[in-house]
Amino acid sequence: MQAKLYTSLFAFLTLSFAAYAQNTKIIPPTNNDDMPGNSTMERKPYGNYYGYERMAAIYTASEIGSSGDVKLIGFYMNNVTSGAAATPAKVYLKHTTSNTISSSDFASEVSGATLVYDATISSFSANTWIDITIPAGTFLFDGTSNLEVLVEANGGGSGTESSTDKAFRYHSTGSDMFQHWQADGSPPSGTGTIETYRPNLKIEAGCEVAVNLGEDTTICTGGTLRLDAGHPGSEYRWNTGATTQTIGVTQGGWYKVNIVTANDCKGKDSVYVDIYPVAELTGVAYTNTANHYMFSGTGIYNITDYQWDFGDGNTSTDPNPSHWYANAGAYTVKVIASNRCGSKQASITVNAPVGLQTLQYDQGLLNIYPNPAVNDLYLENKTGTTFKDISFYSSMGQQVLQNTPDQGNDKLHLDISGLAQGMYLMRIVTDKGMISHPVMIRK
Hints:
- It is a single chain.
- By secondary structure, this protein is mainly β.
- It has four helices and 34 strands.
- The strands form eight sheets. An eight-stranded mixed beta sheet has the order 27-26-23-24-31-30-33-34, with no helix packed on it. Strands 1, 3, 6, 7, 9 and 14 form a six-stranded antiparallel beta sheet that branches.
- Strand 21 and strand 22 form a beta hairpin.
- The chain is elongated, with a radius of gyration of 40 Å.
- It starts with a helix and ends with a strand.
């Protein structure tokens, strides 16, 4: 499967690079000129007759006909003379729901727009497009709103050229879709002039759609993950060779898809899927020395959590717990071994031949301090017995801490910093019997 996956991946990558050509639109498509001879409008957007000239024009989503990252904006130049000057310019793009422009000042009109170009245009040639390139990721056109294009020409002062040194191509729209401003000495501050003519526009945008296969993820062995590329009715190319909108994933690896929508927009995404094995457990094993039982699972694989029940009301979450039975008898020991993909259970019956004698706690012979304790607990043993095991049990009977002391140690230190605040039962198993005593932990 891996060889097939990587072979398909090569084909996928070849397709993905070919699929992301940009869509270029000319508005109007005929690039006609309906308005010759109007020097005031035709020198927009990059004229310098006034020191500060401004324009704003609306182009509809249907005219643009695509969505995605805007790569280029161009205006068509009809005529240019030797007196044409370089133009320090700023270009802004803005989504709008309006089909027409209302009279406003330029500061209000440009509010909320994205600055996509701020440089000087030095070269102007007649009968050609004056294009500016927009850095990738600067403005993503959503394909449903209308687009407003705003331009500042900042020659400065009282201007740097005559009124007819530049002439751009315009067409009639029949609606108020254009506004312009101009002033000497400082940028215009008043309302602009509304027109039904609008400069011809070239716009290049990637027709891209969002595809979301989700975050990298893990599935359990034997499970199936459904990946959905969305956008019903599109053409689909998965690196597995599938051509459907959804695929079922049962093996690990990279899964990638390219789509082409009905209106020829492109999209792609990828996700990495890892396989997590199920929990395995075949049984329970134990060893016993003088009523001290050590338990473990057999045939275990990829276990992260254990829940032991010793059959006498006590439990543990240790992988290999130890336990002392206070009374003789037959006990069914059960364990649930689990991981994120499920659990397995096993059990065994043990026969404890003898119980443990219960010894009374004598503070004069066994000093447990401090009690309440925080992180450390000390035991001074003057009972004449040897401590074999010290365990802490929660109020639910679960073994939460187990310690095997060094033989012959009459003063012990226990680190209890890992225990939460609360009341615990401490059981001390000695060579003569068992001592039980409550311990309070405070944090």
